[in-house]
Amino acid sequence: MNSSHSEEKIQKRFESIKNTPDSIQSIALWVQHHRSSLATITSVWIHVYKASDDTRRLALFYLTNEICQNTKLREKTDEFTNAFFPFILKAISISRVSDIVKDKIVKVVNLFEERRIFSSDQLAQMRKIQEEEIAADFDHSSITTEIENFRECTILALKGHKMLCHPDFSFTKYFKPKITDRIEGEKVIEEMESCLNRARAFTKLCDEHNERTGSVLGFVESAKKFYSIQLRDVAVVEDAYQKYFSGIQVVKRELLEMKRSGVYPGATPPRTLRRPLLWTTSISVTTKRIHLH
């Protein structure tokens, strides 16, 4: 089970999964039977998970739930939970871009906690990833390249489709004049086979492009969330600077008014300042009254 051929078999097994109890239970038993290749199985599992759409991702996550619960509750072993744990963390992180998958995974993690399938520390790590902002995993530097590549592939696919659907094109009219003898006929057959191979290659390209559509849509959704978070943070910073600027303006006006009026509220008089005359006279009068008595 360690050869590349075995990895291909494992991949095909996971790619064939359906979101039904029979399919999930069948593959779960198969995985448990091949526990000697658990490291390879978990590695291929996350590889298939990354390349799958939401429906298959849910089925694959339910598969890990089935395997981990069966082995933990019935066999009383942590062998499978520990093997799948790091890949479950990756799957949770990947699936945060899809609200449908994310919500279903939350329910599965709740089951893990209720039935004590994973340790409290492992569950805490799962919860932490679920609560983290998606912006941390988003590579905004590649958004232009991703969208531009997808756009170019779409243009090529549309051009190819237009050529194949051209109403004036006829294989009979095109090839019949060329068939004059056996040698020419063989050349025509070779040319037709070449055309068929190109058509098959184009069809394959279109299929890959269709599969890529889901990935690009998920990428765009991640971009929307990322830039929404960035906009929120920028708005907070802008508001703080606006308030800071307003405060500076108020202080500036107060300082200008102090400079104009010469009055500085709350300032301590300098020691060299002469005492007011009225205060001095009052002291002198009081002193005289004391002497008179």
From TrEMBL:
Domain CID: 2-134
InterPro entries: CID_dom, ENTH_VHS
Gene3D superfamilies: 1.25.40.90
GO biological process, one term: mRNA 3'-end processing
Gene Ontology MF terms in the entry: RNA polymerase II complex binding
SUPFAM superfamilies recorded: ENTH/VHS domain (SSF48464)
Stated name of the protein: CID domain-containing protein
